[in-house]
């Protein structure tokens, strides 16, 4: 994450806690207020409220059909909310048609005009505003320069590679200097290698121009790498809005924990509920789970404990404290992933737990191998209790 | 089964012979010197000469061409609007009737279309005095009505294939819907427009039945002349005319196919080049 | 495109919050030229309670055209079919009359329809049309299927040439193509001459002015309409399906019957309908190739109208023909709708 994003994050965090010096407060650029969109009986977006701040790269993350694209299209003006309001830069935009909104969109299919050259594509929006042609020319050259496509200005879209088209689509949408750029799966059509490189490029452009980006994506890694903040959507609702770090370490629901990275989820009964710790009894584990923070559950109720695979320790020796936060099992399978390996440990209860270990040494003989009897354990601070 | 069996090959050979032998015979016998169309009397182009002396045929050809050009243009405009409405406007009141009225002429027997529209003209003339008698205007209106269905289908399917987000992108960049249509949609679907125009032109040029119903005494079209002389028997002059018509159509189609093939190849080459450049990056 | 958008006048007309809209529009369109002055006509057409807003206007133009020139004519045909023939201009009795300027007299004559049922000629013509069209459709399918199959199985470059060859006759005059067969089929025509020249027959076979000639004419004229939809479904057919069937022990012929044939059903139905429906009402082919004795309904109607000048009977024949064709047409459209739906679901 860049310095800029980190600053903004701090500012957002402070602003939301309510105590901060006014000059530092980030300005909200988009306010979505109780927006619902129905298609017949189907509720695509369900009572969503959201604030996006100026200059941030905000991601809407979710599986297909979760409503993220509909929400983005409502920001662009291609869909009208069934109820609720959308404010862009303080103005009510709920019923303003797309051609009068100060936002631009980069389409998943890029939607380049096939009968126009790259230059004409980039100039299109400027001409609609009646910008003088000399100025249009200057701006187009400037924009193409940003993405290093100046040499290809006279080509038609079908004469470009996928990556080049993606960049044309990006600068075409940026040419009008919109207040907000909406990106619908901007990297979805690229192959994996190109995608990784383009992610960084996109972030660099966003920061150097200072434009607010709202990105729709289904790829949690992409959201994690690029975003200042992420909103996770499911079935038309926003489940959690947070920085990638907070989203990963402090998911608030089972769905978020499972969607954003991989996780071991344990269902159990809350047997001890104190202000500074809780204890969960999980039948799949031989020992109770001790969590070193309080939760808002009630004693005797069902609780879900989430433990990330890399936060589980694996050893052949018994851990120091075997009264809690550990269990034993047999290594069922090892998935080698290069930088790390994932061990699938089958506990005595039959439950399989994923454990990730760094492969820090090249020649090292793996200490633990198939069918070994092992202990798994974790720190009390590494467990997150989530709601269903 | 990727190889074609002898059975398939012979079926295809028979089928194509069936399609083309009659036309070829027709063309060969147009150069027959004998007045008896089925007896070969030596090579001659005299029937072509006589054809170009025949004022009735030439006049009818001119009438037909004018009607075909007018009705093709009008039906392309109306058909494009219909295609746009069906492909892009979603639901509106009366849509079912609208799409029904568009597709019905496709399957309607020509005799019915011709009779009904003639009766409309007669009723209109009684009621408001228009159209005064029947002639090229009435034929054109009738042709537009039955050819616009074809244009609509062509445009609608082209718009269906087109990525709608291209139009959305234009709107997003500040173009109003009407401008989007003229700056973006129309240029992209231009080839479909052209094929729609050509199809209506051909259908209009070719139509006998509807024109017979809606024509007046002063507006005899080419198919009507051909029909009345063919009814009297085979004449070498009609053979000559047929040869010209078939050759003209074949020529246009083959040229169009070659141009399209070439454009397609060009496109493929450009894509291949762009891909190769990407590899080098 | 969202359906709320307004193609002509833009979304400004549908915006319930014009104030907010204006400020933004001013901000983003600062460089835009001032709006053109609006004429009075413009105001009448586009503003006020009876305004034709852009979207409505776009729909209205073709809609009105079709209502006037397609739907109204059928109402008139229906009306005239209930009139009675009389000598005059127009040659039928009025249906609705003012008698003494006081009351309306409506005369419904069913004579046109009575004819149709009483005179066996009409009934025979209807049945004859259906029989001939059905037979010709089957013949067309028998010839068209292997051709379409063969084209779909060829290499892409030959495929394009062959398709072009199928489509090309469609672009040449229909009348000319029917006419070409007269010279071939008549008594002293090319086919009889050739057969006699080869010594196969001694005297000419009567071919022109028979039902055989009509079959030839229909198959010849409508073959492209059969081949194209068949080709489209056969071309989409995944070749590996057949390979899978054969791999699982199916013999080629059986694989064809169990896999290819059922999967090409949509093409078969479409092709048959495209041949059958227009064939029923065909006029040119029975008139030129079938001779005087053939009875097909299109020809009967033509004669009724042009020779007998009996407009009411011609209209009644037309209405009856329409009723006859409504079932297959509606059935066909239903079928296609279902197929499209399936295709759309499949592509999701």
Automatic annotation (TrEMBL), chain A:
GO BP annotations of the record are: putrescine transport
Q: Output the superkingdom of the source species.
A: Bacteria
Q: What is its EC number?
A: 7.6.2.11
Q: Which Gene3D superfamilies match?
A: 2.40.50.100, P-loop containing nucleotide triphosphate hydrolases (3.40.50.300)
PROSITE patterns reported in the protein's UniProt record: ABC_TRANSPORTER_1, ABC_TRANSPORTER_2
Which reaction does this enzyme catalyse, per its entry?
A: ATP + H2O + polyamine-[polyamine-binding protein]Side 1 = ADP + phosphate + polyamineSide 2 + [polyamine-binding protein]Side 1
What are the UniProt keywords, alphabetically? Answer: ATP-binding, Cell inner membrane, Cell membrane, Membrane, Nucleotide-binding, Translocase, Transport
Where does the ABC transporter domain lie? Answer: 30-260
Output the Gene Ontology cellular-component terms: ATP-binding cassette (ABC) transporter complex
The molecular function terms of the Gene Ontology recorded here are:
ABC-type polyamine transporter activity; ATP binding; ATP hydrolysis activity
What Pfam families does its record include?
ABC_tran, TOBE_2
Classification via NCBIfam families: potA
Q: Which family does it belong to?
A: Belongs to the ABC transporter superfamily. Spermidine/putrescine importer (TC 3.A.1.11.1) family.
| SUBUNIT field | The complex is composed of two ATP-binding proteins (PotA), two transmembrane proteins (PotB and PotC) and a solute-binding protein (PotD).
Q: What does this protein do?
A: Part of the ABC transporter complex PotABCD involved in spermidine/putrescine import. Responsible for energy coupling to the transport system.
- What is the protein's name according to its record? Spermidine/putrescine import ATP-binding protein PotA
From TrEMBL, chain B:
Keyword Cell cycle (UniProt):
no
Single GO cellular component annotation?
plasma membrane
The ABC transmembrane type-1 domain, residue ranges: 61-259
- Belongs to which family? Belongs to the binding-protein-dependent transport system permease family. CysTW subfamily.
Gene Ontology BP annotations: transmembrane transport
Entries under CDD domains matching the protein: TM_PBP2
Q: Which UniProt keywords apply?
A: Cell membrane, Membrane, Transmembrane, Transmembrane helix, Transport
Q: What's the short name of a Pfam family annotated to this entry?
A: BPD_transp_1
| Organism, as annotated | Insolitispirillum peregrinum
Instruction: Tell me where on the tree of life, at the top rank, the source sits.
Output: Bacteria
* Keyword Protein biosynthesis in record: no
Location relative to the cell: Cell membrane
For this UniProt entry, which segments traverse the membrane? 7-31, 65-86, 98-124, 136-159, 180-199, 238-259
List the lineage, top down: Bacteria, Pseudomonadati, Pseudomonadota, Alphaproteobacteria, Rhodospirillales
Q: What is this protein's name?
A: Putrescine transport system permease protein
Topology class, membrane: Multi-pass membrane protein
UniProtKB/TrEMBL annotation, chain C:
Question: What are the BP-aspect GO terms?
Answer: transmembrane transport
Query: Transmembrane residues, as ranges?
Result: 57-82, 125-149, 161-182, 212-234, 255-277, 314-332
Q: What is this protein called?
A: Putrescine transport system permease protein
Q: What is the recorded membrane topology of this protein? A: Multi-pass membrane protein
Transport listed as a keyword:
yes
Q: Which domain of life is it from?
A: Bacteria
Q: One cellular component GO annotation, for this chain's record? A: plasma membrane
Q: Where in the cell is it found?
A: Cell membrane
The record's annotation in Gene3D superfamilies points to:
MetI-like
Q: Which family does it belong to?
A: Belongs to the binding-protein-dependent transport system permease family. CysTW subfamily.
Q: For this UniProt entry, what is the primary localization, expressed as one broad class?
A: membrane
Task: Return the PROSITE patterns for the record.
Answer: ABC_TM1 (PS50928)
**What keywords sit in the KW lines?**
Cell membrane, Membrane, Transmembrane, Transmembrane helix, Transport
Q: Which organism is it from?
A: Insolitispirillum peregrinum
Query: Which ranges carry the ABC transmembrane type-1 domain?
Result: 126-332
């Amino acid at each position: 994450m860049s310095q800029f994003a980190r600053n903004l994050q701090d500012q957002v965090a402070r602003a939301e806690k309510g105590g901060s010096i006014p000059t530092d407060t980030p300005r909200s650029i988009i306010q979505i207020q109780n927006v619902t969109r129905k298609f017949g009986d189907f509720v695509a977006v369900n009572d969503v409220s959201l604030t996006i701040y100026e200059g941030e790269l905000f991601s809407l993350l979710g599986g297909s059909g979760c409503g993220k694209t509909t929400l983005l299209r409502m920001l662009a003006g291609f869909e009208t909310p069934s109820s609720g309001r959308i404010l862009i830069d303080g103005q009510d935009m709920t019923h303003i048609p797309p051609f009068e909104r100060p936002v631009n969109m980069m389409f998943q299919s890029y939607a380049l005009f096939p009968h126009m050259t790259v230059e004409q594509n980039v100039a299109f929006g400027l001409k609609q505003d009646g910008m003088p042609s000399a100025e249009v020319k200057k701006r187009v050259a400037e924009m193409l320069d940003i993405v290093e496509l100046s040499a290809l200005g006279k080509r038609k879209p079908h004469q470009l590679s996928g990556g080049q088209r993606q960049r044309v689509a990006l600068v075409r949408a940026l040419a009008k200097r919109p207040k907000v750029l909406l990106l619908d799966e901007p990297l979805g059509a690229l192959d994996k290698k190109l995608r990784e490189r383009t992610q960084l490029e996109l972030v660099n452009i966003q920061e150097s121009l200072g434009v607010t980006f709202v990105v729709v994506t289904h790829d949690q890694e992409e959201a994690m790498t690029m975003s200042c903040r992420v909103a996770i959507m499911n079935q038309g609702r926003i489940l959690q809005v947070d920085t990638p770090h907070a989203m990963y370490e402090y998911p608030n629901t089972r769905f978020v924990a499972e969607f954003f990275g991989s996780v071991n989820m344990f269902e159990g009964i809350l047997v001890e509920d104190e202000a500074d710790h809780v204890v969960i009894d999980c039948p799949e584990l031989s020992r109770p789970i001790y969590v070193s923070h309080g939760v808002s559950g009630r004693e005797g109720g069902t609780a879900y404990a989430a433990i990330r695979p890399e936060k589980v320790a694996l050893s052949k020796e018994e851990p120091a404290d075997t009264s809690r936060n550990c269990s034993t099992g047999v290594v069922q399978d090892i998935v080698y992933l290069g930088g790390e390996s994932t061990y699938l440990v089958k506990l005595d209860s039959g439950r399989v737990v994923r454990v990730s270990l760094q492969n820090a040494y090249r020649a090292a003989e793996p200490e633990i191998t198939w069918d070994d009897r092992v202990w798994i354990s974790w720190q009390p601070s590494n467990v997150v209790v989530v709601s269903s | 089964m990727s190889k074609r069996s002898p059975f398939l090959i012979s079926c295809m050979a028979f089928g194509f012979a069936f399609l083309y032998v009659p036309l070829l015979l027709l063309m060969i016998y147009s150069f027959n010197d004998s007045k008896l169309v089925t007896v070969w009397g030596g090579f001659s182009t005299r029937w072509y000469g006589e054809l170009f002396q025949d004022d009735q045929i030439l006049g009818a050809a001119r009438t037909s061409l004018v009607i075909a050009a007018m009705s093709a243009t009008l039906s392309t405009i109306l058909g494009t609007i219909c295609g746009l409405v069906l492909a892009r406007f979603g639901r509106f009141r009366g849509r079912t009737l609208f799409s029904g009225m568009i597709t019905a002429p496709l399957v309607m027997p020509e005799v019915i279309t011709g009779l009904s529209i003639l009766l409309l003209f007669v009723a209109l003339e009684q009621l408001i005095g228009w159209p005064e008698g029947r002639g090229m205007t009435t034929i054109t209106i009738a042709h537009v009505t039955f050819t616009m269905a074809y244009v609509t289908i062509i445009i609608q399917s082209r718009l269906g294939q087109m990525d709608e987000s291209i139009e959305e992108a234009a709107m997003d960049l500040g173009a109003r819907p009407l401008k989007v249509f003229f700056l973006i949609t129309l240029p992209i679907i231009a080839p479909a427009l052209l094929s729609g125009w050509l199809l209506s032109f051909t259908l209009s040029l070719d139509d006998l039945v509807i024109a017979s119903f809606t024509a007046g005494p002063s507006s005899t079209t080419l198919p009507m002349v051909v029909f009345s002389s063919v009814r009297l028997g085979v004449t070498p002059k009609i053979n000559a005319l047929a040869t010209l018509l078939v050759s003209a159509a074949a020529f246009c189609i083959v040229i169009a196919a070659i141009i399209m093939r070439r454009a397609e190849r060009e496109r493929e080459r450009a894509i291949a080049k762009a891909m190769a450049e990407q590899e080098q990056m | 495109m969202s359906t709320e958008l307004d193609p002509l006048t833009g979304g400004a007309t549908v915006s319930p919050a014009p104030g907010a809209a204006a400020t933004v529009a001013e901000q983003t369109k600062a460089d835009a030229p001032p709006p053109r002055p609006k004429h009075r006509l413009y105001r009448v057409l586009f503003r006020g309670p009876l305004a034709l807003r852009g979207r409505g206007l776009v729909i209205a133009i073709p809609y009105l055209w079709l209502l006037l020139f397609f739907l109204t004519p059928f109402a008139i045909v229906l009306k005239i079919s209930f009139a009675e023939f009389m000598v005059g201009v127009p040659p039928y009795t009025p249906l609705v009359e003012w008698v003494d300027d006081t009351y309306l007299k409506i005369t419904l004559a069913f004579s046109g329809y009575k004819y149709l049922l009483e005179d066996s000629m009409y009934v025979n013509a209807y049945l004859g049309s259906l029989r001939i069209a059905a037979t010709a459709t089957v013949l067309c399918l028998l010839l068209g299927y292997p051709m379409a199959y063969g084209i779909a199985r060829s290499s892409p470059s030959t495929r394009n040439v062959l398709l072009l060859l199928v489509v090309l006759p469609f672009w040449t005059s229909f009348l000319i193509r029917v006419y070409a067969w007269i010279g071939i089929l008549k008594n002293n025509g090319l086919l009889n001459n050739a057969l006699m020249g080869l010594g196969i027959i001694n005297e000419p076979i009567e071919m022109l002015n028979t039902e055989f000639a009509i079959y030839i004419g229909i198959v010849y004229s409508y073959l492209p309409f059969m081949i194209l939809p068949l080709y489209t479904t056969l071309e989409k057919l995944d070749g590996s399906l057949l390979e899978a069937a054969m791999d699982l022990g199916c013999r080629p012929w059986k694989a064809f019957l169990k896999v290819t044939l059922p999967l090409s059903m949509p093409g078969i139905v479409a092709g048959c309908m495209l041949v059958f429906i227009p064939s029923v009402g065909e006029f040119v082919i029975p008139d030129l190739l079938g001779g005087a004795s053939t009875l097909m309904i299109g020809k009967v109607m033509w004669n009724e109208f042009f020779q007998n000048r009996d407009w009411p009977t011609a209209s009644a024949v037309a209405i009856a023909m329409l009723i006859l064709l409504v079932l297959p047409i509606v059935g066909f459209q239903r079928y296609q709708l279902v197929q499209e739906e399936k295709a759309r679901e499949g592509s999701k």
